[in-house]
Write a structure and sequence with these properties.
Layout: H1 8-18, H2 21-28, H3 32-39, H4 47-54, H5 66-70, E1 72-75, E2 78-81
Antiparallel strand pairs: 1-2
Helix pairs in contact: 2-3
Length: 82
């Protein structure tokens, strides 16, 4: 069974901190296409990518907020946190 995650909060943070998806992909060292695949649940984010996202110079996400951005499960039309 594959879990699907809701990344709308992550997308908002990317726009707020970096301006666009391409900038975030560049920070992660991956292509925009690879990032879009991750945001569409086709490929999971790696632990290293999540650690890079947390960095103050990238998305500045506190450790206790990681689940809100990366592990909110899609359930019907309403996202829920793990």
């Amino acid at each position: 069974m594959t879990r699907e995650y809701e990344y709308s909060k992550l997308k908002g943070r990317i726009t707020e901190k970096l301006g666009n998806i391409k900038s975030f992909a560049d920070k992660l060292g991956i292509s925009s296409t690879a990032l879009y695949n991750k945001l569409q649940n086709k490929v999971p984010f790696t632990q290293d990518e999540i650690l890079v996202a947390m960095d103050q110079e990238v998305l500045d996400i506190e450790p206790n907020e990681i689940s809100k951005y990366f592990f909110t499960k899609k359930v019907g039309k309403t996202p829920t946190e793990d």
